[in-house]
Amino acid sequence: MKAFVLTGFDRAPEFADVPAPEPGPGEIRVRVQATSVNPVDHMIRSGFFRAIQQYRFPAVFGRDLAGVVETVGDGVTRFRKGDDVYGFVKRDYIGDGTFAEYIVVPENFFVATRPSRLSLEQAGTLAQAGVTALECIEAVPSGRGDVVLVNGATGGLGTFAVQIAKARGAGVVATARSAERAKLLRLLGADHVVDPTRGDLVKLVREAVPDGVDGFVDLVKHVDSAVLGHGEDDAHHEFARLCHGALRDGGRAASVTNGGVPGLMGPIGFTNIHSTPSPANLARLSALVDGGGVTPVVADTFGFDDIEAAFGRLLAGGTAGKLAVTLGS
């Protein structure tokens, strides 16, 4: 099968023919029809996780998928051949990912039935960012009467986080760096939009919500480290500063990029999010999509042969929403 693979830390990924995987007991093989490129995929390809994860070269990487079940292994009861599924694959090693024509996954993890109201392209962008955003919003006060600040609101994660917070009944303060992106966030439900290029974020938030916010979801990477764990002190300090400044007493924060350090956070509760593609998380996300409260924002779609162009667009920055990659119907 055709796959996009890593062959070493100092080599660019390349297309290669690799053996198609076969499902074992309790597993299903999915024909991948759509996927997406995420910041974490770039981090994987650049070797960011080499200190904590084994790279099984030649390593098929990629996490998001939407596709159809082609073959089921012995004992599979949850899915049948022909079922439409979506999800994301997060293994304890780098390899056997979704940038390939086929992937094998256990029937009870990584995938769920694809929401019928979504196109393939939309479904292929949903799970990784959607589940991560869901975990972030659920980790902070985000019910009726609460106000949530989403920093980095126009990216793939942020557009989901704004919608999920609104679907849960919360008010939303979101960040955007242009009038066009601010308009998008208001269409997604943001009550206040602030531009962090126009001043200190804490001051801007306090002008919009003088009493402070109940929940803070930080999706901005404050320090661009080459390898996990290196040079992140400045990021921890900036995350703590924003939390102390923007949150009201009793507020809580969540982060996917910088994390909280107890010595800096004091009494502020925080959660460092590590997204989990469990059946429960996918089910809650699917329910939000089926209910009409959450829809992927797809900025552009690329063919599989043009996946490097998709990465180029991702790294150029400024994309509002997600970048889809299709492998054919």
Summary of the model, kept short:
The protein has 329 residues and is of the alpha/beta class. The chain is built from ten helices and 18 strands.
Rg computed from alpha carbons, rounded to a whole number of angstroms = 20 Å
Which spans of ≥5 residues are poorly predicted at pLDDT below 50? none
Query: How many DSSP H or I helices?
Result: 10
Largest sheet: 7 strands, mixed
Instruction: Indicate the mean pLDDT.
Output: 95
Structural class: alpha/beta
Overall helicity = 25-40%
Quaternary? single chain
Order of helices and strands: EEEHEEEEEEEHHEHEHEHEHEHEHEHE
Task: Describe the protein.
With 329 residues, the protein is of the alpha/beta class. It is built from ten helices and 18 strands. The strands form four sheets. Strands 3, 6, 7, 9, 10, 17 and 18 form a seven-stranded mixed beta sheet that branches. Strands 13-12-11-14-15-16 form a six-stranded parallel beta sheet, sandwiched between helices. It has a three-stranded antiparallel beta sheet with strand order 2-1-5, with no helix packed on it. A hairpin with a 7-residue loop joins strand 1 and strand 2. Helix 3 packs across helix 9. It starts with a strand and ends with a strand. The relative contact order is 0.16.
Give the topology, please.
Elements (H helix, E strand, L loop, with lengths): L1 E5 L7 E4 L9 E11 L1 H7 L8 E2 L3 E2 L3 E9 L11 E5 L4 E2 L7 E5 L4 E3 L6 H4 L3 H12 L8 E5 L4 H12 L3 E5 L3 H10 L3 E3 L6 H8 L4 E6 L14 H14 E9 L6 H4 L3 E4 L6 H12 L7 E6 L3 H10 L5 E5 L3
Parallel strand pairs: 4-8, 11-12, 11-14, 12-13, 14-15, 15-16, 17-18
Antiparallel strand pairs: 1-2, 1-5, 3-6, 3-9, 3-18, 6-7, 7-10
Helix pairs in contact: 3-4, 3-9
